[in-house]
Amino acid sequence: IVLTQSPATLSVSPGEAATLSCRASQTVRSHLAWYQQKPGQAPRLLIYDASNRATGIPARFSGSGSGTDFTLTISSLEPEDFAVYYCQHRNEWPLSFGGGTKVEI
Amino acid sequence: QVQLVESGGGVVQPGRSLRLSCAASGFTFKTYTMHWVRQAPGKGLEWVAAISYDGSNELYADSVKGRFDISRDNSKDTLYLQLNSLRAEETAVYYCARGTTNHYLDSWGQGTLVTVSS
Questions:
Q1: Which of chain A's termini has less CB crowding within 10 Å, N or C?
Q2: CB-based contact A43 B105, cutoff 8 Å
Q3: Alpha-carbon distance A23 to A3, whole Å?
């Protein structure tokens, strides 16, 4: 399963909303997660099963979608939210990640 | 707290082998599926392999099948990845990660860099 993320880069200002897209080459039902990765750090799980926030993740992060089209929304960007975001499916083996969206100032 | 610490990375020539380790602490290691994920410099994430909680099942990406071997020692709370016949394009940071019951990755180590170069 190929996951395509768009856009590759998203330029936004602090306080604005950001909408990131992930499209699957075939249905993954709701079996999709989102991760955040900051420079020099390991990824962090944000959202699982398309819309469930992981432990400790702020409410400004939300996920939606099912089937082949998914969205991660950050409602009001904080300075610490500027990072690269990846989607990942777990619908079947092998697992795979999207190519990432960089959210920059 | 959950801690995963990778080691064993370094510079290796093409065609040679390397074994990575991941020491786990802060959780009951023997009850979790564990994964390896890699990231080439400046690139995205690539899932590499997974092993079930008891080591009875192993899964691999097609790109490494037959060359890499994932294993674990639950008595030592340690995950391993044996990398054989390494290629230059496999230069990457290799992360170990804990899997949830639904195969998401909820805790990650800081990674170990493998450089394949002559």
A1: C
A2: yes
A3: 6
Contact B44 A98 (CB under 8 A): yes
Test mutation, A20, A34, A95, chain B, max B CBs within 10 A: A95
Instruction: Judge whether B109 and B4 are in contact, CB under 8 Å.
Output: yes
Q: Is B65 helix (H, G, I), strand (E, B) or coil?
A: coil
Average pLDDT taken over every residue of chain A:
97
Contact call for residues A10 and A103 (beta carbons, < 8 A): yes
Give the residue-averaged pLDDT of B16-45.
Answer: 98
State which H helix or E strand residue A45 sits in: strand A44-48
Letter for the amino acid at B32? Y
Nearest to B59 among A44, A86, A93 (CB): A93
Scanning the structure block, which residue is given the tokens 């230059």? B88
Question: Contact A90/B59, CB-based, under 8 Å?
Answer: no
* Cβ atoms < 10 Å from Cβ of B29: 23
A chain contacts of residue B50, beta-carbon cutoff 8 Å: 95
Distance in angstroms (rounded) separating the CA atoms of residues A97 and B21: 23
CB contact under 8 A, B45 and A43: yes
* SS3 annotation, A29-91: CCCEEEEEECCCCCCEEEEECCCEECCCCCCCEEEEEECCEEEEEECCCCHHHCCEEEEEECC
Q: What are the tens digits of pLDDT across the range A18-55?
A: 999 999 999 999 999 999 999 999 999 999 999 999 99
Mapped onto helix, strand or coil, the DSSP state of residue A50 is coil
